Amino acid sequence: MKKSSIVFALCVLAIVPMVLLTLSIRENKAEQQAMTAVPVIKEGETRASEWGKHYPRQYDTYMQTRKSDEIADVLKQDPALVVMWAGYPFSKDYNKPRGHYYALEDNINTLRTGAPVDSKTGPLPTACWTCKSPDVPRLIKRDGEMEFFTGKWAKYGDEVVNPIGCGDCHDNKTMKLTLTRDYLKRALEAEGRLKTADITHQDMRSLVCAQCHAEYYFKKTDWEDKGEKKTAMVVTFPWSKGLSAENMEEYYDSYNFTDWTHQLSKTPMLKAQHPDYETFVTGVHSRNGLACADCHMPYVREGGVKYSSHKVGSPLDNIANTCLNCHKGTEKEFRETVEKKLARKNELAKLATDILAKAHLEAAKAWSAGATEEEMKPALQDIRHGQWRWDYAVAGHGAFFHAPEETLRVLAGAINKGQDARLKLRIVLAKYNAADFVAQDFSTKEKAQALVGMDHAKLVEEKKTFLNTLKQEWFKKGEAKGLYDPESRKDMVLKTSYN
Amino acid sequence: MKYIAMLSVIVALGVFANLVHESQMLSYLSSDPKVCVNCHTMITHYETWQHSSHRNRATCIDCHLPRDSFVNKMLAKARDGYNHSVAMTFKTYGPNLRVSTDAARRIQDNCISCHREVVSQMLANSALYAKVADNTVQMGRRCWECHRGLPHGTMRNLSATQNNFTVKVF
Question: CA of A297: which chain B residue's CA is closest?
Fold first, then answer.
C-alpha cells in the first residue's frame, strides 16, 4: 500500500511538469500557425479594424500610436521659421508629427490646409491627402492617378476618411509588403540605384515607409480627360540626379522650379519635405543592412508569438528590443548618446535659422531701399540654396540620428550659404545708404507672424468654422458610403496649436 | 490504491510518450546542427554559422558543448535542455539572448582546444603575466571580445542578417 502511494506521488510529480511543457509546446505551435495563416480581406479594404480582426496584435499596437499625442508647436520653439516661410502655408502652423493614428486628423486640422467651404475651394490641391490614408490607393485605382491629383484638397474630403493603415503597406491577399504609391517606383527607376526587380523583403521594410517619408514636390502635369484639358499636381520625388541635398538642389535648379516666392525677400524658394529615407541611406545603420522597421517596428514577444510591433515611433521607447539587439551597453548610455547627437544638430540648426531669417529681412530692406533685380539675384540664390539645405537637414526629424555626419555637413553648408547671402546683401544695403540696418525682432511666434503681416486670429476663426461644418459633413458622408470606420477615431480629442 | 498507482504509471508513460513526440525529443540526441533550429530563435545563428568558415570544421555542439568526455557532454546537454524548457514554458527569457557564464567557459575551452597551436604562447603568457580581467574563462579574456564576428557575424538580427531563410514578418 505504501509503495503504491509513493509510485502514485512520483507519477503525479512527473506528470505535472510534463503536461505543462507539452501544453506550452502545443500553444506555441498553434499560435505560430495562426499567425502564418492568411485570411481573406476584401480588395480595397481601407478600414484598419477589419484587418485587425485577423491580426489583433498588429492592430492593437498600431492603435497605440495614439499615445504619441503631444502637440509641439515648432513655430513657437523657433519663431525664425515664420519669417523663413513667409508667404507659404508652413508659416501659419507647424507642429512636430504625432503618431500614425493622427495622420489624417492633423492634416485636416492644421491651419495649412485652410478652411474650404465646399469641394471646390482651396487653398491646397488633392495631393495633400497622398500620404494620409489607405483611401488614397483606393481612389487612385478608382479614378486614375491623373484624376486623383487634379482639383482641390476638399474634393476628396468625404472619401479620405481613414488614417494611415494596413492597406498602405500590405497586400490584402498575401499580406506581403507592397508599394501602393507608383511615384516611388518611378523615383527608384529614375534614381537607378535599386532596380524594382531586385527589391528584397528587407528593402521593402524601408521602402513602404519611403512612400511617404521622403522629399517630394507637386509636379504640374497637363493631361486630357475625354477632350477636357486639366492640370494635375502629381507627387514626384526629385531623385533622378541623386539623393543628396546638392543633387536635389541641382535637380530643382535645372528647370527653375520654385515652391513659392518668398513674401519678404522675393526669393524663389524651395521647401524640403522630410527626406527621411534619403538621409537614412547615407547612415551607418542603413549601410549595415538595417531597415526602418528593424528599429521603428521592433519584434516583440507575446507568449510563443513573435511579431513586429506596429506602434511605429521612437526606438528610444523600447531600447531593449531595438538598440540592444545588436549593441552592447545600457539603456542609459544609448539615451545619452542620442541626446548628444540631437543637441549638436539643434545648435547648428538654430544658427542657420537665425542667419536665414535675418537674410530674408535684410533682403526685404534692400528691395524697399531701391535695389534692382540684377543686384539682388546672387544673394537671393544663396538664400534659396541655404534655406533648402537647412530644411533638408532638419525636416526629417530623425536625420540627426539616422545620418549625423550628413546632417551636420548639410547644416554647415546652409550656414555658409546664409552668411554669403548676408555679406552680399550688406554691400547692396550700403549702396542704398542702409548699411546700418538691423533686422527686426522675431523672437516670438506672435511678433514674427505680425512681422510678415499674418492675421492669425482670422485664420483660426475660419478654420474653426470649417471644423464645425465641412469636416463633420465629410465623416458623415464617409460613413454613409461605408468607408469611414468610427473605430479609427475612438477617443479622438481636438488638439491643435491654436485651440 | 494499487490500481491507481498502476494507472498513474500508465498515464505518466503516455504523457511522456506524447511529450517525446511533441518536443521532437529524440532529435536532441543527434549532433546535427539542424536540430538547433527546431527553435526559430536560433535561425540567425544557424544561418550565420552556415555562411562562415567554421561550417566545414565545427558544428554547433563542437563549440557549445564540452568535448572532454562523453559523460560531460551529455550532462551539459541535459542541463541546457532543462534550462531551455523551463525558460520556454514559463517565458522567463528576455528579448536579447546572451551567452551564459557556463556557456562562455565551454566555448572558450573549445576555441583553445582546436586552435591550440596558435594560442599556446598566449596561454603560457597569460599564466605568467596574468592580469586577469575575466576569471570565468581560461586566459582571462574572452576570445570573441576581439574576434567579434566569429562565426555568427556582428549582425545577429532576425531580419537584418543576410540569407536568413525563413523570416516571416506578418
Answer: B169
Query: A20 and B94: CB-CB below 8 Å?
Result: no
Considering just the CA atoms, what is the radius of gyration of chain B in Å? 20
Mean pLDDT on A462-473: 95
Domain assignment of residue A19, yes or no: no
For residue range A411-439, what is the model confidence (pLDDT) as tens digits? Answer: 999 999 999 999 999 999 999 999 999 99
Asked whether residue A475 is domain-assigned, the answer is: yes
CB contact under 8 A, A55 and B18: no
> In this complex, is the C-beta atom of B23 within 8 Å of any C-beta atom belonging to chain A?
yes
3-state secondary structure A36-76: HCCCCCCCCCCCHHHHHCCCHHHHHHHHHHHHCCCCCEHHH
Q: How many whole angstroms separate alpha carbon B143 and alpha carbon A420?
A: 54
**Beta strands at A268-269 and A260-261: parallel, antiparallel or unpaired:** antiparallel
* Cβ–Cβ contact B88 with A under 8 A: yes
Residue A178: which CATH number?
1.10.1130.10
ipTM of this predicted structure: 0.71
- Is the separation of the CB atoms in A349 and A390 below 8 Å? yes
| Euclidean distance between CA atoms A73 and A71, whole angstroms | 6
Residue A132 placed within a domain: yes
Phi, psi of A267 (to 5 degrees): -75, 135
φ, ψ at A284 (rounded to 5°) = -70, -30
| Torsion angle of the four alpha carbons A397, A402, A406, A407, in this order, in degrees rounded to the nearest 10 | 20
- Say if the Cβ atoms of B160 and A290 lie within 8 Å: yes
Residue A2 domain flag = no
How many residues would you count in chain A? 499
Number of structural domains chain A divides into = 1
Predicted local confidence at residue A1, as pLDDT: 60
Q: Which domain holds residue A193?
A: 48-485
Count of CB pairs separated by less than 8 Å, A with B = 105
pLDDT tens readout for residues A222-273: 999 888 999 999 999 999 999 999 999 999 999 999 999 999 999 999 999 9
Q: Do A289 and B4 count as a contact with CB atoms less than 8 A apart? A: no
Residues 6 or more apart from A456 whose CB is under 8 A from it? Answer: A92, A446, A449, A498
| Single pTM value for the model | 0.81
Q: What is the pLDDT of residue A26?
A: 86
Helix (H, G, I), strand (E, B) or coil at B129: coil
Out of B5, B18, B89, closest to residue A7 by CB: B5
